[in-house]
Amino acid sequence: MPLKKNANIILIGPMGAGKTTVGKQLAMRLGKTFCDVDQELEKRTGVPVNLIFDIEKEAGFRLRETAMLTELLQRENCIIATGGGVVVTDENRQLLAQTPHTVVYLKTAVKHQLKRLKRDKQRPLLQGAGRRERLMKLAKERNPLYESVADLSFASGRNSAYGMAQKIADYL
Ligand code: S3P
């Protein structure tokens, strides 16, 4: 699929899909700039995402996420990694569905998410016990939403970030 010269690629998918690691490698391969909605939010606010969740609750975080996504979509020639919950609000889904840029869904099974997130202690939606059940519930709710806004999807499976970036770059 020929990609327009300054096109952005927006990576969506659940926590532990590898959006950030794949995004960085894809940016290198395609000569684009990498940016990440959560990282930009942390830079702007000076606090980690989990603290934003603590103080402003998920609703406050989602408002900030929409504003940041809107801003990043105005840039050119970027790979934009989003947070796993970017598809839960109507506003964000509209932004993603209407953008002229390419939205790529990194499809991931819960067993692979669990492996990749094994050492993670930060993610606010994964605090406490029952990770597998929580991830399964989120997948059930959100997978159709990712599908609804994606232009392309790639199953990450057991592929490394390197392999995924190669697969996506070859296709594009
Ligand atoms: C979230 C995923 C996180 C982060 C926040 C909420 C979610 O991003 O945006 O903790 O709702 O799934 P990653 O997908 O990069 O973990």
TrEMBL record:
The keyword Disulfide bond does not apply. It is an enzyme of class 2 (transferase). The keyword Heme does not apply. Substrate binds at residues 38, 62, 84, 142. Pathway: Metabolic intermediate biosynthesis; chorismate biosynthesis; chorismate from D-erythrose 4-phosphate and phosphoenolpyruvate: step 5/7. It catalyses: shikimate + ATP = 3-phosphoshikimate + ADP + H(+). One of its GO terms (molecular function) is shikimate kinase activity. InterPro entries: P-loop_NTPase (IPR027417), Shikimate/glucono_kinase (IPR031322), Shikimate_kinase/TSH1 (IPR000623), Shikimate_kinase_CS (IPR023000). One of its GO terms (biological process) is chorismate biosynthetic process. ATP binds at residues 16-21, 123. Its EC number is 2.7.1.71. Binds 1 Mg(2+) ion per subunit. It comes from the Bacteria. Belongs to the shikimate kinase family. This is Shikimate kinase. It comes from Marinicella pacifica. The gene is aroK.
